[in-house]
Design brief:
It is built from nine helices and nine strands. With 279 residues, the chain is of the alpha/beta class. The strands form three sheets. The chain has a five-stranded parallel sheet, sandwiched between helices. A two-stranded parallel ribbon has the order 6-9. Strand 4, helix 7 and strand 5 form a beta-alpha-beta unit.
Length: 279
């Protein structure tokens, strides 16, 4: 069984030759940092333009797929919402995808296209999940129409259960809208799969479940603190790798690594399903 699994992992790694990333601070590898002349997020305590204390999940995923930095095109911006332009003037998800598609001569059949967005819409006050889900759906359709064949779409962790939100008045409403978002997104992805041909893969990464499990069973993931932020009021904890959260919203690089492991497993499970279906 180990040999079979290893073979599938190797096959999947060879079939993906590039990662294209769209989203917000959870996937930003330095776009906001460069836009603000390396002022934000401040380094230190943040790591070289990441909203964490080290690399973020798409970087770890790229490494696991045997890709290097030149094989990654990252359009994600910290603070991005799902529309064309975010409240702070930076490109939102639809704007990022538009910037990509209008400069793309043809789709990459062997590319992995990643979308993780929506959290900022709700954190900035959007109370209904309808528009963010529509925006994400439109972004996926744009990529598919541009030739994308493999798209990884990430849902949202419980936004009402973050260190920055769980003790304030918006906690319950954020939890409710997160649930509505994830349900609406799952339904929309199902409809997209029916609309587009079977050669187009739309793969879901269930991060909400991963967060819930980590908070319920911290030792399973090597965590000792899953409720508070390592970085708090300018001071940093001594053991960040044992924390789920780096600051009030963003995960530590240790948590990002776990998300990447989950994404890699999901991609390989999908590859195995396709191989068995073709057999």
């Amino acid at each position: 069984m180990v040999l079979v699994t290893s073979s599938l992992h190797d096959t999947n790694a060879r079939t993906i030759n590039q990662i294209y990333v769209f989203g917000d601070s959870l996937s930003d590898t330095g776009n906001m940092y460069r836009t603000t002349n390396r002022n934000y997020p401040p380094n230190p305590p943040y790591f070289q333009g990441r909203y964490s204390n080290g690399q973020v999940w798409v970087e770890y995923l790229g490494s696991k797929l045997a890709l290097n930095t030149k094989d990654s095109a990252n359009f994600a911006f910290g603070g991005a919402m799902t529309g064309k332009v975010s409240n702070n003037g930076i490109p939102g998800l639809l704007g990022q995808v538009e910037n990509f598609t209008k400069n793309q001569l043809s789709g990459n059949d062997s590319g992995l296209y990643v979308i993780w967005a929506g959290a900022n819409d709700y954190i900035y006050g959007v109370a209904d999940s309808t528009t963010p889900v529509i925006n994400i759906t439109q972004a996926i359709e744009s990529l598919l129409n541009a030739g994308a064949k493999k798209i990884l779409v990430v849902d949202l962790p419980d936004l009402g259960n973050l260190p920055a939100t769980k003790n304030n008045g918006s906690s319950q409403s954020l939890s409710a809208v997160t649930k509505a978002h994830n349900q609406g997104l799952a339904k929309s992805l199902s409809q997209l799969r029916q609309k587009f041909d079977s050669k187009s893969e739309i793969i879901e990464l269930n991060v909400s479940e991963l967060y819930r499990d980590a908070i319920s069973n911290p030792s399973k993931y090597g965590f000792t603190n899953v409720t508070s932020a390592c970085l708090y009021q300018g001071a940093t904890c001594n053991n960040p790798d044992q924390y789920l959260f780096w600051d009030g919203i963003h995960p530590t690089t240790a948590a990002h690594q776990i998300i990447a492991e989950k994404a890699f497993t999901v991609l390989n499970t999908r590859t195995e399903q396709l191989q068995l279906g073709a057999a």
